[in-house]
Automatic annotation (TrEMBL):
<protein>
    <submittedName>
        <fullName>NAD(P)H-binding protein</fullName>
    </submittedName>
</protein>
<dbReference type="InterPro" id="IPR016040">
    <property type="entry name" value="NAD(P)-bd_dom"/>
</dbReference>
<dbReference type="InterPro" id="IPR051604">
    <property type="entry name" value="Ergot_Alk_Oxidoreductase"/>
</dbReference>
<feature type="domain" description="NAD(P)-binding">
    <location>
        <begin position="13"/>
        <end position="187"/>
    </location>
</feature>
<dbReference type="Pfam" id="PF13460">
    <property type="entry name" value="NAD_binding_10"/>
</dbReference>
<dbReference type="InterPro" id="IPR036291">
    <property type="entry name" value="NAD(P)-bd_dom_sf"/>
</dbReference>
C-alpha cells in the first residue's frame, strides 16, 4: 500500500485499550494514522509516525483540523451524549468511512438484553451515522478479556481469595487485540461498508473457570468464593456508577445456566481464529503478579 495515495485514518480513543492497538495495526498495514487526544502530552505515548491532534468530542469544532483530509475515522464514544449529533455531522462532512465501536445491544441473548444506559447511547449514535450515508461498519465486542485486569488484579496480586458474584455466569471473553485487528481491517480494506459484527472469543467459560485459567497461567491455584450481589454493590460504591453495577449484575444473573453467545466474526474477517482466554491470560500473566507496576 502506497502511503502517499492513502488518506490518513483518524483514531479517536487513541490511548485506550482498543484504539491504541488499532493505531499499531493500521501502521503495520501501511496506513497513515492521525490520533485524537485530550492532552498534547499523550503524543509521547504514541508511535513517532502518528500525527497527533488535540481535540474533544464535547467540542465538535475542535475535531475539524484532525478531520480535514482524512479518509476514515475509528469512533470510540467517550463523552456525554449531548454533542453526538454535531460530531457525526462533522464526520460526514469530512470523511468517507467510519468504524464505530459499539456494543451487542441488539443481540438476542439474555446477557446482552439488560437495561444499559451505554447501549442506549450506542443505539442513538448508530442511528445518527446511518442517517448520514457514510460508509459505516459497526463492531460490537462482547465481554472484554481485559476486564479481568480491572476486576481481579488486586485480589490475585495480594494472594487473597477472589470473591466475585455469579461465578457460574458464562461469557466468551474477546481479546482486545482481536477487536482492534477487526477495526483496523474494516477501516483500510474495502468490502465492509454496512457491516455489523458482534465480536466474541471462541469459547464459553464461567467466571470461576476464567479465574482458574488465570491461575494456570500463573502456575498457582486462585481460591474463588461466591459474593452476593449486595456485597458487590457495596464494594463498587464510588468506583462505578450504580447503573453500570446493576447492569453487570443483571447480565451475569441472566447468563447463569446457559452457554455464552459466540460468533465467528473475528475469524471471518481476519482469516485467523480469535485468541482464546488461555492465550490472553498467558500473555498478560505479568499484570497479575505483585512485581508488576501496572496493568
Amino acid at each position: 500500500m502506497n502511503q502517499t495515495d492513502t488518506p490518513p485514518v483518524l483514531v479517536t480513543g487513541a490511548t485506550g485499550r482498543v484504539g491504541r492497538v488499532v493505531i499499531d495495526q493500521l501502521l503495520d498495514a501501511g496506513v497513515p494514522v492521525r490520533a485524537l487526544t485530550h492532552r498534547s502530552e499523550a503524543a509521547a505515548t504514541l508511535p513517532a509516525k502518528v500525527e497527533v491532534f488535540t481535540g474533544d468530542l464535547t467540542v465538535p469544532e475542535s475535531l475539524d483540523p484532525a478531520l480535514d483530509g482524512a479518509g476514515g475515522v475509528f469512533l470510540v464514544w467517550t463523552a456525554p451524549p449531548q454533542t453526538s449529533a454535531a460530531v457525526v455531522e462533522r464526520l460526514a462532512a469530512h470523511v468517507r468511512r467510519v468504524v464505530f465501536l459499539s456494543s451487542p445491544h441488539q443481540t438476542p441473548h439474555p446477557f446482552f438484553q439488560q437495561p444499559n444506559p451505554m447501549a442506549v447511547l450506542h443505539a442513538d449514535i448508530e442511528r445518527l451515522i446511518a442517517a448520514t450515508g457514510l460508509e459505516s461498519t459497526i463492531i460490537r465486542p462482547g465481554m472484554f478479556a481485559s476486564n479481568s485486569l480491572a476486576w481481579w488484579v488486586p485480589a490475585i496480586r495480594a494472594g487473597e481469595v477472589l470473591r466475585w458474584p455469579y461465578g457460574a455466569a458464562e461469557t466468551a471473553p474477546v481479546d482486545d487485540r482481536d477487536v482492534a485487528a477487526v477495526a483496523a481491517r474494516t477501516l483500510y480494506q474495502d468490502g465492509y461498508a454496512g457491516g455489523d459484527y458482534v465480536l466474541t472469543g471462541p469459547e464459553s467459560l464461567t467466571q470461576a473457570a476464567q479465574v482458574d485459567v488465570i491461575g494456570d497461567a500463573l502456575g498457582r491455584r486462585i481460591a474463588f468464593e461466591e459474593m452476593t450481589p449486595d456485597e458487590f454493590r457495596s464494594l463498587s460504591e464510588g468506583t462505578a456508577p450504580s447503573s453500570v453495577v446493576d447492569m453487570l449484575l443483571a447480565a451475569w444473573s441472566a447468563a447463569v445456566g446457559q452457554p455464552a453467545y459466540i460468533t465467528t466474526a473475528v475469524a471471518d474477517i481476519l482469516g485467523t481464529a480469535p485468541r482464546t482466554f488461555r492465550q490472553w491470560a498467558a500473555d498478560h500473566a505479568a499484570a497479575f503478579t505483585e512485581s508488576s507496576e501496572g496493568s
